[in-house]
Design a protein that fits this description.
- This protein has 147 residues and is mostly helical.
- It has 3 helices and 4 strands.
- The protein has a two-stranded antiparallel ribbon with strand order 1-2. Strands 3-4 form a two-stranded antiparallel ribbon.
- α1 runs antiparallel to α2 and α1 packs parallel to α3.
- It is elongated.
- The N and C termini lie far apart (50 Å).
Length: 147
């Protein structure tokens, strides 16, 4: 048995004590394998229950989704929509809204990476790197240097 992999049992016992047939005590119908190290493979589940499933196509779509989430986090980190002459109160609300969306997307990327799937991790890092390159180094840089 892999010491870095364990099976959790989902139960609805509010008292906090596991039911008698919890791990080691019998078979429970709701077992989920969780990894405590990076693993490779398309059979992953992250962000949403049952997604992406066992399909290679859905796994590829999930990797693209994580890549785009990380890319948009970088977009929102380096994108300034506020004009200097804008109303200060309206600007503050807009900046707060953008910050909240960016934080939410960043937490979704973090939760996806916490699946410990190597492909998801690489997609997240690549999304952040490409986003930084595009939005910090190329598009919004001041002058010809990196900015």
């Amino acid at each position: 048995m892999d010491p870095y992999r364990y099976t959790t049992t989902i139960h609805h016992n509010i008292s906090g004590m596991p039911p008698p047939n919890a791990p080691g005590g019998g078979i429970h119908p709701h077992h989920k394998t969780t990894f405590l190290h990076f693993y490779w493979g398309k059979n992953a589940e992250f962000l949403f229950s049952g997604w992406p499933g066992n399909s290679s196509g859905m796994y590829a779509l999930a990797l693209i989704f994580v890549f785009l989430l990380a890319f948009f986090v970088e977009l929102l980190s380096h994108f300034d929509l506020i004009k200097p002459s804008a109303n200060r109160v309206a600007s503050a609300f807009l900046q707060t809204g953008i910050y909240a969306v960016r934080a939410g997307l960043a937490y979704m990327v973090m939760l996806a990476v916490m699946s410990y799937n190597g492909g998801v991790f690489l997609a997240a890092v690549a999304g952040h790197a490409v986003g930084f390159f595009v939005f910090k180094c190329l598009v919004f840089s001041k002058g010809s240097g990196f900015g």
